[in-house]
Amino acid sequence: MTAYLIGKNAIFEVYKKAKKRFICIYTHKPRDVFLKQLEGVPVEFKSKDVLTKIAKSESHQGFVAKIKPKSFVTPYELFQKDLIVALDEIQDPHNLGAILRACECFGVEGVVFSKNRGSPLTSVVAKTSQGALEILDLCEVSNLATTLDQFKKQDFEVIGADLSQDAHNVFDFSFPKKCVLVLGKESGMRHLLKKKCDQLVYIPMFGQIDSLNVSQATATLLAFYRAFFT
Question: 59 — phi, psi (to 5°)?
């Protein structure tokens, strides 16, 4: 099974770190100077309509990269890390891509997500993530609740982002060094996962809109985590 990247930035970021995974580049722009940056990658010329069909998106900027699929890591490979993000039922591919971008920017060491409980890792996710999808260690699991228990046995604290009354204001919160940060869909995480959390945390709002979207919340909480240990 192959995967696809779309857009110049996402393609080039992955090319810099994983050139060997590239199979070919599809484009309808044979004279574009961008091709010179992808040294050694075969080029095939396709019409714009064909590119859109391959990418399942019109936002490919005239470039689609066919690459070997990314390998997932296991939870056991993440137990020696410090900062893990766990995602549950993130359905929107743009939100998922933006979350992954924030995770890479703030040095998250692994992203765990439930199989069949969220957006698939499409070319839209890859483009929105600006290459983070291919850089991060990703861990796909069948049962996220069970996986959280496994992390807790390895001395991680599970911190959930939630608006419950017993959640802590992030301004006053002391993050644990070994942390699994759990984020669910904007309507809130599932009750089963909330019960697995050691503590809950929320971001206070000061304007008329009462919440951030999940990708913005992810970036904010990760910034607070990094600030706490800086």
Answer: -95, 40
Q: Indicate the residue among 47, 67, 87 that finishes a domain.
A: 67
Q: 115 and 204, same structural domain?
A: yes
Does 45 lie in the same domain as 9?
yes
DSSP letters, 3-29, are EEEESHHHHHHHHHH-GGGEEEEEES-
Phi, then psi, of 185 in degrees rounded to 5: -65, 165
Q: Which domain holds residue 54?
A: 3-67
- Strand-by-strand arrangement of the 199-202 sheet: 138-141, 110-114, 83-88, 179-184, 157-161, 199-202, 168-169
Could you please report the per-residue DSSP string of 145-166?
Answer: HHHHHHHHHTTPEEEEE---TT
38 and 99 belong to one structural domain:
no
List the CATH number of the domain containing 111.
3.40.1280.10
Identify the domain boundary among 24, 50, 67: 67
pTM, rounded to two decimals: 0.83
pLDDT of the chain, 230 residues: tens digit per residue:
568 888 898 899 889 888 888 999 999 998 999 999 999 999 999 999 999 999 888 889 999 999 988 889 999 999 999 999 999 999 999 999 999 999 999 999 999 999 888 888 887 888 899 889 888 999 999 999 999 999 999 999 999 999 888 999 999 999 999 999 999 987 778 999 999 999 999 999 999 998 899 999 999 999 999 999 98
